[in-house]
Amino acid sequence: MTAIYARNPAAVSVRPARPDDVEAIRAIRNHAIEHSTALWTRTPQTAAQGVAWLAAHLERGSAFVAEAGGEVAGFAVYGPWRELDGYRHTVENSVYVREDRHGLGIGSALLTALIAAAREAGHHVMIAGIEAGNTPSIRLHERFGFQHAGTLPEVGTKFGRWLDLTLMRLPLS
Ligand SMILES: CC(C)(COP(=O)(O)OP(=O)(O)OC[C@H]1O[C@@H](n2cnc3c(N)ncnc32)[C@H](O)[C@@H]1OP(=O)(O)O)[C@@H](O)C(=O)NCCC(=O)NCCS
């Protein structure tokens, strides 16, 4: 387990996810689906989908959770950016922190661990696809050296409006 300093007084630990984290992760993910434009769907993940989704990440060692006060306060994963094999050295990330724990350094702690793991696994580039109005996420990724690679206007929709997708890119090797 990697102990990482966070800005709140209590220590935050980031560790590889385990199968029994699935419900805590699913709750954070489904909260974002219901209330935000971080995930471009309004369909919550079912329990069975959550298990299958996490299992794929556990198999490749690409899921991490942050624990604070004995609870899962956030998670981060990476997976293939696109499916065709020519894209195999590029991964896409996702970072989610429980809403009541935002701004405490937990997202930074998770991204630190995730980038290190992707480098260790030999990947070449990490992509973040972020809703263009999601300033906290864009700032977070900028702080880690992700560079803006362009914004695609109106490629998504949620809550009755068009969404623009900002792509950010971090070289890993
Ligand atoms: C984006 C998110 C993961 C950031 O996690 P966090 O734990 O709150 O972030 P941290 O406390 O580590 O802050 C890291 C940096 O993010 C940026 N940031 C965080 N919250 C911010 C806010 N409300 N406004 C502007 N920038 C913000 C800042 O640059 C901050 O560094 P700084 O305080 O030194 O300037 C979190 O807000 C979140 O889970 N949001 C909802 C889900 C989501 O949008 N995920 C990303 C999908 S692409």
Largest beta sheet, briefly?
8 strands, mixed
Kindly state the percentage of residues in helix: 25-40%
CATH class term: Alpha Beta
The distinct bound ligands, ions and cofactors come out as:
coenzyme A
Going by helix content, strand content and strand pairing, the class is: alpha+beta
Do you know the CATH topology?
A: Aminopeptidase
Q: Which sequence of strands runs across the widest sheet?
A: 1-2-3-4-5-6-8-7
Shape: globular
**Strand content bin:** 35-45%
Give the integer mean of the pLDDT values. Answer: 95
N- and C-termini, Cα separation? 25 Å
Radius of gyration: 15 Å
Determine the CATH superfamily: Gcn5-related N-acetyltransferase (GNAT)
CATH architecture: 3-Layer(aba) Sandwich
Enumerate how many helices there are, as a single number.
4
Runs with pLDDT <50, length 5+? none
Order of helices and strands: EEHHEEEHEHEE
What is the count of structural domains?
1
Brief overview, please?
By secondary structure, the protein is of the alpha+beta class. 30% of the residues lie in helices and 36% in strands.
